[in-house]
What we know:
CATH class of the largest domain: Mainly Beta
Strand content: 25-35%
Number of domains: 3
Family: Belongs to the multicopper oxidase family.
InterPro entries: Cu-oxidase-like_N (IPR011707), Cu-oxidase_2nd (IPR001117), Cu-oxidase_C (IPR011706), Cu-oxidase_fam (IPR045087), Cu_oxidase_CS (IPR033138), Cu_oxidase_Cu_BS (IPR002355), Cupredoxin (IPR008972), CuRO_2_LCC (IPR034285)
Largest sheet: 6 strands, mixed
Subcellular location: Secreted, Extracellular space, Apoplast
GO molecular function: copper ion binding; hydroquinone:oxygen oxidoreductase activity
EC number: 1.10.3.2
Number of helices: 6
Amino acid sequence: MGRLEGGSGLGGDWWHGVKQPRNPWSDGPEFITQCAIAPGTNYTYKVIFSTEEGTLWWHAHSEWTQSTVHGAIVILPAEGTTYPFPEPDGEHVIVLGSWFTFDVNKVVDFDLLSGAYLPKAEAYVINGQQGAFFNCSSEETIHRISVDYGKTYLLRIINAAVDSELFFAVAEHNVTVVGMDGSYLKPIATPNVAISPGQTINVLLTSNQPLGHYYMAARQYVTEPHPDISNATTAVIEYIGNYTPPSSPIFPLNLPEHSSIEAANGFLSRLRSLASEEHPVFVPQNISHSMFIVISEKEITCPNSSCSTFDGNRLSLAMNNITFLNPTTNILHAYYRNISGVYDTDFPDFPKLFYNFTGDDLPNGTVIPTIGTKYSYYVVGSGIGNFNNETDPKSYNLVDPPELNTIRVPKSGWVTIRFTADNPGVWLWHCHLIRHLTWGMKTVFIVQNDDTPETSILDPPYSMPSCEKSFVNYIQELEDSDVVQPVQMNGKLNFTSVFMLDDEKGKEGGRKRLVEADLVALAAAKVVPYLTKTLTFARDNSCQDLPLEVAFYELLP
Length: 557
């Protein structure tokens, strides 16, 4: 993965739902397992698949960039095996997303400083197109899918919207749900589905209706009286054949209203793992460690009295009354290198006080989609109201619960998940409503090594993105200022000089060297060659000492 020179630098890509056994180095979240990929540099990920099969996705994991930087991951059955359902005649990826008409990262940065409420999407899209019912809609803004009568198609649906659970339906057609989050389910025939941010659903659609045009549509699910976006995003399914096209496609009356709690909870209550001989489940029966996590709203004081709110505070979210603050170096590096002062390990297993946890609404309260730590979880139970440890476990499904990587916590309710912590590493666990994530609703699971190399974290790659400023950013600062100042890199070198390091092209793990093409940028910054020498020191995020060929440049007065 590369970054264009002149950009601001971004965090990595999150391989959503890919378990990455023993390989946290390529997990991607900024300041959790890596630092930002600097402008003009690149980082190659090693993505390791294991038991996943179906549809997953990837997305950027820095600020709100994931609203546009995302894509599908399609995992086919292993060679020599088949789907646990009849082979479809075709398939289509359906990505549900958010639409903003402004630079969302800049607005978010301002809102965090001022204490303002974080932005909301202005529209939803299907495969990048808004559909027929938004401003400036036209024939060019509608995604279209052609189907043959009597054929069955696999739709791989991804909710990449950053801020909403969505209902999805196809006019006049039922669908059969066969998989979710990279695992198979017992088939469910349904007129619609509910899909939380971060989730994926595989459905079979049989084109068995009269030849014509039919809308597929997605609508926000929110339990407040008024949705953020009242219109539905649409695409069109067009039957192939000899007929007169209608003046307008048929709209899905089977698409639930935006506040239909019954439709959302009813759909999720029907989910069951396939639990077949070919696709078994391994639900933990004996629990060695339990946690009771309460999601809540709180306020924190803005730094330097920067907020324009009446009390100088801004909104935040917490788990067990703890709000996560991003460190300045990545937690994986600190853990692996035994660096103190980067993170605490005192996250409580239970809230300090017990009260009516469901008495108050979270902002824009609907559901809380929580993404896990490179695990899939068995959702053994859920309900409305406060969890009762005496009675609610009696209703747990310990036979064939759905195995999901993104868990939906119902509004004013609870959910119970079980998993086996058998994947050593440092793994982010957070809400997938991006406003909640930004407000601090996240934490980190550190799964320690076991006694053998096969149950321990893999060795780190040769190099990883540095937490220090990139050379390009230093050059930009020099160009913007007439002041000549010493530049300090990695806290180890301090010269009235700057230097540029890069990998030799085509030599993975090769020595570092000066790249001649960057002399143009150096000249623009009024610098001249001074000396070249070889030094040995540890890069900030590399886990070994490296010999570096360094070219220094003296700043001209």
